[in-house]
Amino acid sequence: xxxxxxxxxxxxxxxxxxxxxxxxxxxxxxxxxxxxxxxxxxxxxxxxxxxxxxxxxxxxxxxxxxxxxxxxxxxxxxxxxxxxxxxxxxxxxxxxxxxxxxxxxxxxxxxxxxxxxxxxxxxxxxxxxxxxxxxxxxxxxxxxxxxxxxxxxxxxxxxxxxxxxxxxxxxxxxxxxxxxxxxxxxxxxxxxxxxxxxxxxxxxxxxxxxxxxxxxxxxxxxxxxxxxxxxxxxxxxxxxxxxxxxxxxxxxxxxxxxxxxxxxxxxxxxxxxxxxxxxxxxxxxxxxxxxxxxxxxxxxxxxxxxxxxxxxxxxxxxxxxxxxxxxxxxxxxxxxxxxxxxxxxxxxxxxxxxxxxxxxxxxxxxxxxxxxxxxxxxxxxxxxxxxxxxxxxxxxxxxxxxxxxxxxxxxxxxxxxxxxxxxxxxxxxxxxxxxxxxxxxxxxxxxxxxxxxxxxxxxxxxxxxxxxxxxxxxxxxxxxxxxxxxxxxxxxxxxxxxxxxxxxxxxxxxxxxxxxxxxxxxxxxxxxxxxxxxxxxxxxxxxxxxxxxxxxxxx
Amino acid sequence: xxxxxxxxxxxxxxxxxxxxxxxxxxxxxxxxxxxxxxxxxxxxxxxxxxxxxxxxxxxxxxxxxxxxxxxxxxxxxxxxxxxxxxxxxxxxxxxxxxxxxxxxxxxxxxxxxxxxxxxxxxxxxxxxxxxxxxxxxxxxxxxxxxxxxxxxxxxxxxxxxxxxxxxxxxxxxxxxxxxxxxxxxxxxxxxxxxxxxxxxxxxxxxxxxxxxxxxxxxxxxxxxxxxxxxxxxxxxxxxxxxxxxxxxxxxxxxxxxxxxxxxxxxxxxxxxxxxxxxxxxxxxxxxxxxxxxxxxxxxxxxxxxxxxxxxxxxxxxxxxxxxxxxxxxxxxxxxxxxxxxxxxxxxxxxxxxxxxxxxxxxxxxxxxxxxxxxxxxxxxxxxxxxxxxxxxxxxxxxxxxxxxxxxxxxxxxxxxxxxxxxxxxxxxxxxxxxxxxxxxxxxxxxxxxxxxxxxxxxxxxxxxxxxxxxxxxxxxxxxxxxxxxxxxxxxxxxxxxxxxxxxxxxxxxxxxxxxxxxxxxxxxxxxxxxxxxxxxxxxxxxxxxxxxxxxxxxx
Lengths: 555, 555
Fold this sequence. Notes:
Chain A has 555 residues and is of the alpha/beta class. Chain A is 41% helix and 20% strand. The interface between A and B is large, with 83 and 82 residues.
């Protein structure tokens, strides 16, 4: 038997309704339960699923409607109690966080200065009116909501374009702006790959694979599943590509979508070709083809990630790594004599690779890359991959050396190699660093470990041991040498601070979250400057009435 | 003061001498110690380093020569005691392992049937004679020893070529044959990338990076630092490429070297172009250029690894994964009705990707890929990335389904997603598998986790949870779908068992280790069929006399 219950004027977002639904489903005697706000569309769903109750006739979008299939006559009473308990729980939990809150846009705007992004997750039918207001306050929009009207979507996007803003979405499931995850997103490494994608899990899969490989993401922007339709014409896609083209932290641009309308696709491809950066395009389902100048094509999401990772690693080392060291480098730079790089290698080919990458610097006075596996160092003693002695001597010698700024070295593990090279070199590096720091100086040690987790020395343990000693550990020898090169440029004054695009991507995020409070909480916990705008449908959810009220307000 | 000590007829390899050296250096009163076998070359080193003692005048290559710098008159006596202790320790340790041993090649050949590889690490001056004997017994050679004569190297390599064998080295620091690490090598994943490289750490760096990325190595063959010289002409390089070209498990071939002699390089490049497989070449230090048909060029060792990984992943899933499932698949194949694939997806784009990769099969009766995020499944209930309900129902339904052989699904983690989807689906999968197995049946569940280690659900924990439930977890959704495709081919009888080259790469290794016992022990612990041939210089190390003796033996 279907029974209905209506709780007036208690608007809840869909996540809370789901939590409530889970709670009620667990109750003894409940066969099935369905909970929605009393919008006309939702009432239709109740009817179509045989869960409608006459109680719902007068319900409006601000009212919680609960439909239960049960034989127990007392059930509605128990449910009503549970519901009250749930709502009071919610409000006590909610007031426990320091999340700044507002009940109107005006209220929200008073609590945050110059917001640059609004996250919108209210029911789709109300997005257009709310979105226009937000755009007019010069905020970029990330619209999680779906079921928006085509014309409304286009109008919002055109308005954004005219104002130099972007609308991500609607139906935008995921995004990452300056490392901040929006909606359904993963915690990925920061890096030099920017992503534009239509839908959610495509971006999630590509960004996660890149991150697991060791690469990183600058920004990932969703544009919504219909942006590349002929009607919308890729308005947001092109703006997103412009954003990434102007962002100095983005060196490789990835574009992911299902095959779009032919004319739209051609304009996207043309744009990608003149974007001035390496680009990877995936039109899922199309035949793959060879690269056209800067534009590479991929066949699957994995393929896209692997290709972007490969191309991104061809670039110089991720600039973020130099920035991490900036304070130490500025100390070193104060001492104008301290300008050399030393390399202490066990592996001959690795030493050779470092020499090539550092070729601009290694012929300067005081600079040298030593292959301690060369005959002159191994006569009568074991190879430096086994015996740390010669390298320990070199490290000790740094105490009295006032010129060396950077030291790179390798740690080749595996069968035959020392069982703990990091443990042998580490204490001596630590001692040098402590000595230098006592004297107000510093040296940057950079190393990579060549080997795997299954080697007896265990890759991650050797990395950890080196990091404990104060070494900056890079994932490969080439990355070590590239970082050393960037540092030498920095010390020479040739290294440029990279200025990002002055828009959204170059700024700290200042967010108004309109809708799902769980999205807001995530950002709050990540220390993002945020106001939670607890939107509820005004005027009983009647849109005409809402617009009239809006006009009256604006007088 | 320099004192000398000679211990006659106790040949020790260089690793043992190093261990001894470490022990003696630790003794109180010892300023410096140098230990070598009494070869003419070693005596020169003693002289050049000021460590020569008149005691060494009559020493031969079978005698341990110890030179000590000390002021203590009793030191030689203490050292002599330590030495005896060390030697008796060694022999007791050595007899403790079940390693098969021989003191001559003839003895070794009696203890192993049809050996196909000899690992040679005796002093370079003795390699030629020993190597010829080994080649004549139809063994491929891996020569770790260095200091070989150019003409001798060439003669050995030509002899090998004429016999359909290969000489890896001399001065070959690393190799991996059929997953077995030789000399200095890392424990890497098995996979479809074959490597040919001149020297040691180049191969180690590339194979380790590939393995850390999640790719795998079929074989890695070192050819020695001089193979690409004009004198040697790349004899071994070309044979190694032929070996890999004929090896069905190798789909991408990597070639690493310093820039070789121009003519040799041209012949290698020509060979790589007609090899019939995707190839990546690194001539370290040369300008990079665009791909020429199947041949791609890389710029650094890391770049080589990333490019090879990317290209290797474009191939169908690594066949080894199907072989791992072979027993279960053969059980499934017995039931001729069980031929369908189901996909249970939360991510829409992931479902779309699976459909594309499985396009040959999904339109067959009983096959379907369901996107549970589609409107028809989410009406009135949360998204399947949050709510496992719809997928649990689908999994439960498999109990009564006798047609489904393979099920693929996704597990998208990160912000917004279920906190433990693997924990929700896992028990139901386990139950289905237990039910099927009780009835003598099986189903293959394949999944990937989309997300990272830093996501709140933790990538590796979700993988572990799924594996515990009996799911085969692949690294990406594309790999899942590719594996499902291969399984469908297998069940249709279209999947070919791949026959490898009948030579070294296709066979189990049967090794004679000539020299460093530590190399032998490593292989012994890896369960490689092996005889340790404890080579010592006969005839007091006099090569002319050795050859005469050899001739007399052969009469």
